[in-house]
From TrEMBL:
<dbReference type="InterPro" id="IPR021196">
    <property type="entry name" value="PdxT/SNO_CS"/>
</dbReference>
<keyword id="KW-0663">Pyridoxal phosphate</keyword>
<comment type="pathway">
    <text>Cofactor biosynthesis; pyridoxal 5'-phosphate biosynthesis.</text>
</comment>
<dbReference type="GO" id="GO:1903600">
    <property type="term" value="C:glutaminase complex"/>
</dbReference>
<protein>
    <recommendedName>
        <fullName>Pyridoxal 5'-phosphate synthase subunit PdxT</fullName>
        <ecNumber>4.3.3.6</ecNumber>
        <ecNumber>3.5.1.2</ecNumber>
    </recommendedName>
</protein>
<dbReference type="InterPro" id="IPR002161">
    <property type="entry name" value="PdxT/SNO"/>
</dbReference>
<comment type="subunit">
    <text>In the presence of PdxS, forms a dodecamer of heterodimers. Only shows activity in the heterodimer.</text>
</comment>
<dbReference type="GO" id="GO:0042823">
    <property type="term" value="P:pyridoxal phosphate biosynthetic process"/>
</dbReference>
<dbReference type="GO" id="GO:0008614">
    <property type="term" value="P:pyridoxine metabolic process"/>
</dbReference>
<dbReference type="GO" id="GO:0036381">
    <property type="term" value="F:pyridoxal 5'-phosphate synthase (glutamine hydrolysing) activity"/>
</dbReference>
<dbReference type="GO" id="GO:0005829">
    <property type="term" value="C:cytosol"/>
</dbReference>
<comment type="similarity">
    <text>Belongs to the glutaminase PdxT/SNO family.</text>
</comment>
<dbReference type="Pfam" id="PF01174">
    <property type="entry name" value="SNO"/>
</dbReference>
<feature type="active site" description="Charge relay system">
    <location>
        <position position="178"/>
    </location>
</feature>
<dbReference type="GO" id="GO:0004359">
    <property type="term" value="F:glutaminase activity"/>
</dbReference>
<dbReference type="GO" id="GO:0006543">
    <property type="term" value="P:L-glutamine catabolic process"/>
</dbReference>
<keyword id="KW-0378">Hydrolase</keyword>
Length: 203
C-alpha cells in the first residue's frame, strides 16, 4: 500500500484519512517536516487557506513541502488545498502563501455569498462510473490554466456553468469540491492510482 500523508495542521483531515484508507492507502498525518520524509504523496485538505498558510510557516513546513512538490511528489488538494497548490491566488490575503505547484489562477470564495455551499453533479474526465456528486463549501474556482494543466471537471449548470473545478498537472491534482465528505471514494481512488503510477515510474 502506498504511504500517503494528510497535512494535519488545519481543516478536514479525518475525512480525507478515512477516504484514503477506503481507497487502499496507508495514511500518515503530517505536522512536521520529519513526518513528510515518511510519505510518498500528500493530501492538502479543505479548511481555510489563510490559516493553513500561517500554520505552514509557523511549523516550518512551507519550504519542505514546496521542495517535495518541485521534485514531483504526488499531491492532491481539495478546496483550500486547491488554493495552496495554485501558482496565483485572486482575492487572497496579501501575505497568503501558496506552493505554486499547478500553473493556474484560482479565485477564493468564488461562488459568492448566496451559494456559500451547494451540491451538483460533475462529469470527471478519467473517472468512470457516471457523474460525481460534488459538494462545494465556500469554494474557489479556477480562472486560468497553463498549457500543461488538464481540466478534469467543470460545472455544467447554473450561474457558474463552465467554471473549472477540477484539474490535474502531472502528479498534482486539485478539486474545488470536497470528495471526502461523501461516501463515493472515486476521487481518492483516482489519486491513489496516480500515486502508484508515480511510484512505478520511479522504479
Ligand atoms: N474559503 C476557504 C479558503 O479560502 C476554502 C474553503 C474550504 O476549504 N472549504 O481557504
Amino acid at each position: 500500500k502506498p504511504n500517503i500523508g494528510v497535512l494535519a495542521l488545519q481543516g478536514d483531515v479525518v475525512d480525507h484519512a478515512r477516504a484514503l484508507e477506503a481507497a487502499g492507502a496507508n495514511v500518515r498525518k503530517v505536522r512536521r517536516a520529519s513526518e513528510l520524509d515518511d510519505v510518498e504523496a500528500l493530501v492538502l485538505p479543505g479548511g481555510e487557506s489563510t490559516a493553513m498558510s500561517n500554520l505552514l510557516l509557523a511549523f516550518d513546513l512551507l519550504e519542505p513541502i514546496r521542495k517535495r512538490l518541485d521534485d514531483g511528489m504526488p499531491a492532491y488538494g481539495s478546496c483550500a488545498g486547491m488554493i495552496m497548490l495554485a501558482r496565483r491566488v485572486v482575492d487572497g490575503r496579501d501575505d497568503q502563501r501558496s506552493f505554486g505547484a499547478i500553473d493556474m489562477t484560482v479565485r477564493r470564495n468564488a461562488f459568492g455569498r448566496q451559494v456559500d455551499s451547494f451540491e451538483t453533479d460533475v462529469e470527471l474526465t478519467g473517472i468512470e462510473g457516471g457523474p460525481y456528486r460534488t459538494v462545494f463549501i465556500r469554494a474557489p474556482w479556477v480562472e486560468e490554466i497553463g498549457d500543461d494543466v488538464e481540466v478534469i471537471g467543470r460545472i455544467s449548470q447554473g450561474p457558474a456553468d463552465g467554471r473549472i473545478v477540477a484539474v490535474r498537472s502531472g502528479n498534482h491534482l486539485a478539486t474545488a469540491f470536497h470528495p471526502e465528505v461523501t461516501t463515493d471514494a472515486r476521487v481518492h481512488e483516482y489519486f491513489v492510482t496516480m500515486v502508484r503510477a508515480a511510484a512505478g515510474a520511479r522504479g
